[in-house]
Design a protein that fits this description.
Helix content: 40-55%
Structural class: alpha+beta
Distance between the termini: 39 Å
Number of strands: 10
Strand content: 15-25%
Number of helices: 9
Strand order of the largest sheet: 2-1-3-4
Order of helices and strands: EEHEEHEEEEHHHHEHHHE
Shape: elongated
Amino acid sequence: MNWYYVEQGKQTGPANEEQFNTLVQSGKITTDTLVWREGMADWLPYGQVHATAVAGGAVGAETKPQAVCAECGKMFPEDETIRYGDRRVCASCKPAFIQKLQEGAAINTGELAYASFWSRFGAYFLDLVILMVFNQFIVRGIMLIATGTILPRPGIMPVALTVFVTVFPALVGIAYEAILIGKYGATLGKMALKIKVVTADGGRVSYARAFGRYFGKILSGFTCAIGFLIAAFDNPQRRALHDHICNTRVVYK
């Protein structure tokens, strides 16, 4: 029977039982990954499907209870892991995990640390300044070359130059947002504040989603900036309107 699963917000598959079990063992499919196969009424997290299968005695070849390592995120037989609180750690990660405990380092809980409203505001302000300085530098330079002056004068600028001055900043804004978030998960402003944009499950945002998110931000602005202010009251995830539209989250790195 073939399985399907969600990877970075996209449906992936089919994968037969052997391929699916390999994906589970490699950690590509975790307890939080949405999965589906024929006979299921809806998509469910793999952990829930697996627990149901164990309870019903329909696990198949793998009969041992499975656990997800809190450090590497891979699946292992439960008896091959150690328990720490409500988490388990595999044998390979155990030495590093014990070292972290001894040094008092932060332990990975698997939960997203959502960025505060003011962190998001600061990043947005920095991005505005960066784009304004860049656009003004380029636009004024082109105007100086084309007209001999950096100040626009009515009736002097050719139509083509007028269109360029109007369209260029918009194109730069789109490219800035889509390319940086698609590649790095963060614009320069977000990098400075150590926050980034991720999918609902903490995965990387695709270029297409980053592109759509830019226009979602325009919509947030068209609502008298209420779309941005929503993040101040959206507990605990602090999502703005464009995050709701594109199903993204802004988290600390």
